[in-house]
Records
---
Amino acid sequence: MAREDYEVVMGLEVHAELSTKTKIFCSCPTEFGAAPNTQVCPICMAMPGTLPVLNERVIEYAVKAGLATNCEIERNSKNDRKNYYYPDLPKSYQISQFDKPLCKNGKIEFETSNGLKTIGIERIHIEEDAGKLNHDDLNGGSLVDLNRAGVPLIEIVSRPDFRTVEEVELYLKKLKSILEYIEVSDCKMQEGSYRADVNVSVRKKGDPKLGTRTEMKNMNSFRSIIRAIEYEIERQIDVVESGEKVIQETRRWDEVSGKTFSMRDKEDAQDYRYFPEPDLVAIKLSEEYIENIKKTLPELPESRKQRYLEEYKLSEKDANIITSSKYLSDLFEKSIKVCNNPKAVNNWIISDISRIINETELEPSQIPFDSNQLGKLVILIDKGIISSSIGKKVLVELFENPRDPEEIIKEKGWLQISDEGAIKEIVVNILEANPQSIADYKAGKDRALGFLVGQAMKQTKGKANPQILNKLFLEELNK
Amino acid sequence: MNIIELTVHELQEKLKNKEITTKQIVEAYANRIEEKEKDVQAFVTTLVEEAKKQANDIQAKKESGEITGDFAGIPIGIKDNMCTKGIKTTCSSKMLENFVAPYDATVVEKLNNENIINLGKLNMDEFAMGGSTEYSYFKKTRNPWNLNKVPGGSSGGSAAAVAAGMVPWALGSDTGGSIRQPASFCGVVGLKPTYGLVSRYGLVAFASSLDQIGPITKDVYDSAMLLNLIAGPDEKDTTCSKKEKIDYTKALKNDVKGLKIGVPKEFFGDGINEEVKAALEKTIETYKEMGAEIEEFSLDIANYSLATYYIVACAEASSNLGRFDGIRYGHRAKEFTSLKDLYKKSRSEGFGSEVKRRIILGTYVLSSGYYDAYYKKAQQVRTLVMKKFDEGFKKYDVILTPTSPTVAFDIGAKSSNPLEMYLSDICTVSVNIAGLPGISVPCGVDSQGMPIGVQLIGNKFCEETILNAAYTLEQKIKFRENYKPEFKK
């Protein structure tokens, strides 16, 4: 059978680190990047006799995430222990939630190339992150860093509603933007604060029974998630085609070889022995509490998008791109406040800014300049102080060394030449040097004008005011 | 006057009247430890020299007025499963033989704030698992009444040290009877507070939903005083009640007229030693004479409680003890070939057989496929036990039972028979299962002169009721004046 005869069924488990100031069960800071084992205390190091105290912010953030993804909020929830041994898990159990997650039965909708897609959210639960093992190159062996142990996470488990790789990618982006909008996670994939495990299975089209699934871990970018899924789909189809059976297992994605590998053999099949966490009391949420959180929910991407379509007359496509990231969307709105020119700000974000962050693989949140600087850039162009081509150069400068655009153009000598007398001198010189172009123009070849303007721009390093330049060339040529 | 025979409230009286000094008190206890510890073996760590220094310091500060407070300079002994900053906390296990906690348990912090002097860390069954203190990795503690007998457990070191006069009072912990049963075996008073009355922060967990810290004292008044010191809310333990502190000594009215005492007949059936039964019947008569209203009733839970207890406690223990993996602290095997091998060897070497037995049992009852039949069922029975007690407390203020089916048994008699050892908890475990307060107070001795304890169980957070009932009995029978441990060899 061919590839097209198979249907792919996928589900996602997304882990997002919550951006609370302190850990989930103690008051250690959660900041990323500190020296190993400097953000630890007896509690998150699991010293004997210590007890967890649940950080109430974690519940608040998880409820926010649940409300923003259309979930039902569980009024009577609890924590459970998930028991397993690993050196990065100091208590030898992870405090998580088993049968009573905080949020359940939600959904996320987004536009795909085949129209609107809805992905069901089975549950969102809170849990603690584990520490990290670092390989000790000097002495061999592994070193345990517990800074991350106890950083709060939410796990967002989707239903197996994905049929295409495109859907997976769009869902991950949509979910990321929602979590950023409600400010519960900074979702930095490169820092591991937004991670996804993917369950993949294949079945012959029309087969009502689901195929055996494998779970893939260790993907740390959208790109590797997509590559891993594509590899795994092919692998599973090959297995089925060769008459063998897919084994239910966890597989590790290896970025270098571009393949997935089985992580555990059957002998090690995990039994997590979940049971209710006796060191914590049950989580009881009042209607009032949930209502209050509802009131604090900020405007979500869908609603912002509608507003952009109506208020600023953006195209559907542009509005989608801008609202896909809270950071871009905030940059857009704040820049407009500075320059009052939505169209221009939109163009900058959609074209040049997007291109540069794609090329340099930056997250929107890593854009180094602020809305004030972008807004001023637009004003400078609007006022004719610089041309839009100089504007592009200013933008590059803003990425490299963000400062006031006015300062940049002064420093670089990029002020636009709008003095007609000065420009006329240039025009006359260029016409004298290019008699052939004059002849071409007179013979009806309009392209010749473009060439002449180009020459003038080249000579002035783009600083000549293009309108005036055009006007003066036309005047001279039509004399 | 023999200092080591005085209760803490008597010591306070004499300190106040300047009849004795802090230094004299600590000196007396140091001498007593020197004299008796070789026979009783109650301590894992003694802090005699440190205590003497502290006594000097505290006395000087008291004289200069820098320190006030009724408890400054009073010594104490602490069960070796409560964390003490800078002092070893071993849980009587090879696993933690050299473990020094970097922090104080909340109860220890509270004692330190009162300038109470720690005389040492007391022996116990390894990780509080056992009923005889024979499962200590370090030593077998002896019963001061008869050195061939066990002191009970798991807080056997605490009870024996108090009975032997090596500490004026001590802290124990009780998961299934570990304060009350050794108190009963050693002829002292042991109180297990309501679950949630005393913070568990810093108590090395055995079974989190059952563990409670409580006082082991010479008399009921001291029990109430020590409870005053350790009870109360703690932001580090969210299972700890937020109820405001009260003064338990005010409840000691020496009057039980009209007190309704229920006697569950199931606790006096097969397996209860005849002499224990006789002593309890006499106690019931005494209560009647003092004006209490006694009624027999049915509380058919004892057998279920024991099974439920061993499932819940072992399940929680199997998880709680997972952290002893040889990675961060505690025993680590010297040689290993892989991570798995490191875990296996460290834990095999570090834990004793009883601890291993309970870890295996607990792992089993939580395993997929068995969870519903064991753990879930046990939780359902637990709810049932609570209901039965609730019904009881609608009719009675206090429920009276033996603390233990027998008096202290010979060393070695049960240590190789786990089931028989488990049965010695039969009268106490249901109190933990239901989260209730229970006190054991001496009520007599058997024909061989071994102490017998009566257990008084109260409704949740009704420590005042059982303390008063125990106090009234104590005032009437004057056990301490009539019987003294003889250190029989």
---
Amino acid sequence: MAIKKFAVACYDDEEVLFPAVKKVRNSGYKLHDVYTPFPVHGLDGALGLKETDLHVAGFIYGITGTSTAVGFMSWIFCSDWPINFGGKPHWSLPAFIPITFELTVLFAAVGMVLTFCYLNQIMPGVKKHVFHPRQTDDLFVVALEINDHTNEEEVINFLKSTNAVETSIQVAESEWWFGRWDKKEPYELA
Amino acid sequence: MTERFEVPARLRNTSLALIAVGVLVLIIGGVTMLGGHDHHDKTRFWLVLLQNSVFFLLLTVASVFIQAAASLAQGGWIVAYKRVPEAIGANVWVFGVIAGAILIFIATAFDVDGHNTIYHWVHPHGDKILEGKSAFLNKEMFIGFTVVAIALWSYFGRKFRALSIAQESAPKNSTKIYWTVFKWSAAFLLVYALTQMSTIPWLWIMSIDAHWYSTMFSWYTFASAFVSGMSVIMLFVVYLKNQGNLEIVTKEHVHDLGKFMFAFSVFWTYVWFAQYMLIWYSNIPEETTYFKMRQHGPYSLIWYSVFIINFIMPILILMARPSKRNYFTVSFMAVVIIFGHWLDFFIMTMPGPLGGHWVLSWYELGIFAGFAGLLIFTVSNTLSKASLVPANHPLLKEAMIHQS
């Protein structure tokens, strides 16, 4: 949770966005994030984002589901409530497999969705500052993190030189927060 | 943009040596087994030929299937190494002729002291169950389906390659041939569904245990053949890369092929288990005999090895992203998977006729080597006949910039 200062540039086409992102990364300004109305192929590469570890989390959730299912069913059918099904042994692994499989998938899927939401700071009832209302509609928004020592005019001129259609300086909360949408704005730098 | 592949002398000599091993083993086996008096040996001689020829035929047909599926899905990534499945598919007829001859011989002329020990249904008289099945399980049906299926597979395999090569000299940016291939692919999927995915495994393999049946069987055989087919494509692609060919193939393409190997290993296990579990659960004696012999009987060791090699190993080794992008891991796993599914075919065919008298020794491995040599020889020969890059293909650029 920190109030920060941002220089924001909006682009109206992804053809313009890619060279702009490249220029920003070469310029030395600190890139906060890029907001696009739809998933742009190759943007993660252009931003230099690292491969996510989400799949490692998924593996761990899956294993948790597997062991929960096998452990729970073993406990039920062997010690808590043993029933004779057609003369089969109490601990009949083949009969457990479908449920084990389903629970593995369920744990992995639900766990990964929640982790994904956490990593992207999206969740029902959770707020994030919106740099431009049209960033979910038809504008590609690039936010640079700046501070009090930054020459604002220079940043804006630089962003305009990358063919931005709209630029602004904003002071905003950089992380997500719980609360109502009308959190007090404008923010003040701490 | 063209890229020629010349078969290196070393590869040619290795494949010829493997073929020589196969032929030598076949001759020695023929003399010792067919000339002997042990009826198990006579059965073993033909059964091993059946197992290997069918395995290699279905595995090559899988290459035709992946081409058809990719064309219909308009998948671009496969275009980068399209010539490899094409070359395998163009050689379906070689394995088709061999397998067809062996199968038809077994169904019509094979005889041990008045019994057909491999296909019992050839003489159904006096056996209520086999008499009931004889409307489908009879020699005419068997020969008819065998000939038609092999002819169609071979034709489609050669057709796809011919069309793809014709694209090279087609006018630039012409998509005429592309859409022709699209239509042929739809036709092939229908053919494939009615043969490999249903009738053919029933006739060729499931009818070895003629009293038993399973509705999952053809899917299970398809999964086996398909994952082995993808592994063979992977081996050729990695080999060509190592030779400095296939410049446009990158780790991204290898990654996607690895995904296929991984996914269809899991799919194989899914179908394999679906077949097993229903029979285990209902516990009807006429169905469980099939698994009693395999799981608890003399084949127990192979049964569990097949499960470990075809499921545990791929899922643990191929799951991680870096291992699918590593040329060594994927080629190692390709060899393991091919061998594992060869063992799977072994356990599909052997128990019925041979029972506890099974052998896995010089003859079995020698015939396997012979077929592997034949595959390498014919496919590398075909690969050298045309450019490795399918120039002028509408999706070539998409394939080159592919990211998995």
